[in-house]
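Sequence only, no structure available. Ideas?
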Amino acid sequence: MPSTVDPLIPLSLLEAVRTVDLPDGDLEAEFVAELRNKRMGLSEPVFAQIKRFAEAVRRRQPQSFDEAVGIARLIGRRPDAEAVFREAGRNLARQSYGTVSPVTRKLTLMLPAILARPIALRHVRRIAARYMAGNIRRVGSSILLSVQGSVTLESTARQGGCAYYESALRELMQLLVGGVGAVEHVRCAGRSEGTCEWRAEWRPIGSAR
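Reply:
I predicted one. Tokens follow.
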């Protein structure tokens, strides 16, 4: 297992907790204060940690792998853990997609698939390697994401934490190529299969791209 992770990993997890725990609609200030005592995502310690990790992202300072695992395990105790992990995965994808130049983003959506896919694949590989400590390879009409050092692997029963990487891959492909077909969790270290692996189809069913 790696000793460090990109700071965007713990930041995306905690920001997802905050997003899920935010109250709906306008509430009185005293009620919000009361909620802060009950909801993890609204607590002062979580706000402080988000601020710390956001600064680490800005400075590109790697963070402890064990600390990220600890955050994932805290999330795993929640009844809505899988929903939080999926929100965190989308958050990770959106923020990492922001590192792709605006020109490249437009090209991957406007060019014919035969030209756009190699560009998109290059950026998916870079993002997966930097932010997920993962490896991307193309197999026919699908791409495979392999992650050996998953921070969410043991966070919940029945590999619910693996939704984090599945959601991140799905959102990233959606952003880069304007759509994605099925995303499957095809291998899992939690099932003694050596590594965690997800397969994503290049395009949604019926798409011409």
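Residues 113-131 form the longest helix (19 residues).
Hope that gets you unstuck.
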